[in-house]
Design a protein that fits this description.
This protein has 20 helices and 18 strands. The chain is α/β, with parallel strands linked by helices and about 650 residues long. The strands form four sheets. It has a six-stranded mixed β-sheet, with helices on both faces. Helix 12 packs across helix 13 and helix 19 runs antiparallel to helix 20. The two termini are about 55 Å apart.
């Protein structure tokens, strides 16, 4: 197990942990949560030995192998597959030993090396590495491309795949979802569920934490508090704890006031002096229970738009992509797009990375000209655009104040309404304090840059918001603030995000970007999850068809070798049974969720959380069975 006892940890003069204690048992999957800057990543450095505690004791089994994602951008011409394979240090060592033994022509050493290679899984290592790469969203054509030919986000995905490739007893993941789209995120959740070691993950994605973890470690005020349950359970338990803490504080204050009144009244009376002195000592002995001193919550609202044109945008038979300057054909990404964005619409954009989601958003934002067709804007349209890369709209060498002054100048408000102090105050409402206002953007953290972009958008009073992965660097509290602000916003929203909680809270409909098209997606995020499973199976089948040398999975023994029509009828009956069980499981899960409330006891919350998680796992298993049977039925129908 991992055991931290009375740990003190400092970073410079800042105390990150003070007399902190924590336990994570072997095989547990735990999240480490807390506000940005609380010290979560520094705690990871302590666990892997890069830092040492000032006081206290850190205990980890000596034999444990630790894997984590290297945060440095890889610069190498190695092929993607080779780069990920190198993450398996045991395999790499065995291969090196074989080379050395072969060079020496040492028969015994060669035999030993082959045995070590077999133990390390050399026979299927390449396919395992490529499975990780493809699962994280790469195309088969990317497998042999050099690492340095990919953009930064894709290279960090390769770093993640490399960490997953490494044999480990403890896996430390620091914000693994930042560079992932929904497809890769769902895949990673499933992979982590099957991981047999101990997991400790830092993430601000609440649905990812709910799916991947069963223990929550909260880092706050230099203390570590363990909660049994995933993030949703933690929220409920923490509310209870804060309420109990507040009640205890109020009761203690009453007692202290009563003692103080007695002391004030009788301390100078000879007949009561002794009793007064005893009460003074009692008052000094009372350990003060702090009131709930939660950090100030970050909240903001979008200003009411001056106009609400309807429709806001009409896209007519447009091709979107990138114009070339060397005379070669333009690179078309999306074709024949016909879409209308109406006032008040709240649209979530779904689709795998590389399919054109950002291209679609950039084209609406006027950053890209359509290659064909037209985009017609409603009169009075004002767009607020949050780019996937904040530096697309920020100048790293300028200050937040400079950015706001430039906005005021461009909008013709460089007079009374845009006085410097007013802009400073407005930046302050986004937690960009006086010290940060005059720092260059390059010195700000990812979360601070994201808040600056939000501040600039809100100041412009947009009526159409285009948000391309706005939560990548936002902590949970700021994500909640964004969700609340978007729900109060009166204009239209187009949102690209891998944060499913935000998509659920904000969007009323979804559009799917894929295969060169933008089409309505009929369904919710659960339906999209099933769609991804189906697409994954089809892609795997296509890869097997393209590479027939790869061994196909053997049909399991329970599948009857009956005639096609009999098997079809059997499948229909099985599908009906599964659908009935699915309906029942979904109802049970809904009932468990509705029973959750802050007033429950700790034991009741644990019981309900376990029931909720059990139903969720059952639903996933039933959906998987349904998809397999449906695929088999389609194959049988095709043969008839």
């Amino acid at each position: 197990m991992i055991s931290l006892k009375n740990i003190e940890l400092r970073l410079g003069t800042k105390v990150l942990l003070q007399d902190a204690t924590m336990t994570v048992n072997a095989g547990e999957k735990a999240s480490l949560i807390g506000r940005n800057g609380a010290g979560k990543s520094t705690l990871f450095s302590l666990l892997c030995g890069a830092l040492h505690e000032e006081a206290g004791k850190v205990e980890l089994p000596r034999q444990w192998r630790i894997a984590q994602v290297d945060q440095h951008m890889p610069e190498t011409s190695d092929a993607a597959t080779d780069f990920v394979l190198q993450g398996d240090t045991v395999l790499m060592h065995a291969r090196a030993e074989l080379r050395r033994a072969t060079d020496r022509d040492d028969g015994m050493a060669i035999a030993q090396a082959y045995g070590d290679l077999a133990d390390a899984g050399d026979h299927d290592s390449t396919s395992r590495a490529q499975s990780l790469i493809l699962g994280l969203g790469f195309k088969p054509s990317d497998l042999e491309k050099p690492v340095n030919s990919f953009s930064g986000g894709w290279r960090m995905r390769l770093q993640l795949a490399r960490a997953l490739m490494s044999p480990s007893d403890l896996l430390l993941l620091d914000e693994p979802t930042n560079h992932l789209d929904l497809d890769a995120l769902v895949w990673l959740e499933e992979w982590l569920k099957k991981y047999e070691g101990t997991l400790l993950v830092i993430s601000h994605d609440r649905e990812f934490l709910d799916a991947a973890t069963q223990v929550t470690i909260h880092l706050e005020h230099a203390q570590l508090t363990r909660y049994s349950g995933n993030y949703s359970a933690f929220e409920l338990l923490r509310v209870q704890k804060l309420e109990q803490q507040q009640a205890a504080h109020e009761k203690q204050q009453e007692k202290m006031q009563h003692l103080q009144k007695y002391i004030d009244r009788f301390r100078y009376k000879a007949t009561k002096a002794r009793q007064a002195q005893s009460r003074i000592k009692a008052l000094e002995r009372i350990e003060k229970i702090s009131a709930v001193a939660a950090d100030a919550e970050f909240t903001f609202t979008f200003k009411e738009p001056d106009h609400l044109p309807n429709p806001m945008i009409a896209i007519d038979d447009a091709d979107f992509g990138y114009q070339t300057s060397d005379g070669s054909p333009d690179r078309k990404v999306l074709s024949h797009v016909r879409k209308t964005i109406m006032a008040g619409q709240r649209i979530g954009i779904l689709g795998a990375n590389g399919q054109g989601k950002s291209t679609f958003i950039k084209s609406i934002a006027r950053d890209l000209e359509p290659l064909a067709g037209s985009i017609t804007e409603g009169k009075g349209l004002t767009i607020g655009y949050f780019a996937q890369q904040e530096l697309d709209v920020l100048d790293p060498e300028q200050t937040p104040l400079h950015h706001m002054l430039e906005l005021a100048r461009k909008s013709g408000q460089a007079g009374q309404s845009a006085r410097e102090q007013e802009l400073r105050n407005f930046l302050g409402t986004f937690n960009i304090n006086a010290g940060m206002v005059t720092q260059t953007v390059s010195t700000l953290s990812g979360g601070e840059k994201a808040r600056l972009v939000l501040c600039m958008i809100v100041w412009q009073k947009p009526n159409l918001l285009l948000l391309d992965e706005p939560t990548n660097h936002l902590d949970l509290a700021t994500r909640e603030a964004l969700s609340l602000a978007l729900n109060q916003f009166e204009g239209s929203v187009i949102l690209v995000s891998h944060d499913r909680a935000l998509l659920r809270a904000v969007c009323d409909e979804f559009w799917l970007v894929g295969r060169g098209e933008v089409t309505p997606f009929e369904g919710d995020l659960e339906d999209y999850h099933r769609y991804l499973v189906d697409e994954s199976k089809r892609s795997a089948e296509a890869r097997r068809a393209a590479h027939p040398a790869v061994e196909r999975p053997v049909k399991t023994a329970h599948q009857p070798h009956a005639s096609g029509s009999k098997r079809l009828k059997s499948i229909e009956r099985e599908l009906q049974k599964i659908e009935q069980r699915l309906t029942q499981a979904q109802e049970n899960k809904g009932r468990a969720e509705s029973r959750m409330c802050p007033m429950l006891s700790y034991t009741e919350v644990q019981t309900i959380t376990l029931e909720w998680e059990t139903m969720g796992k059952l639903i996933g298993e039933l959906e998987e069975q349904w998809l397999l049977l449906q695929d088999e039925a389609e194959e049988l129908c095709a043969k008839r």
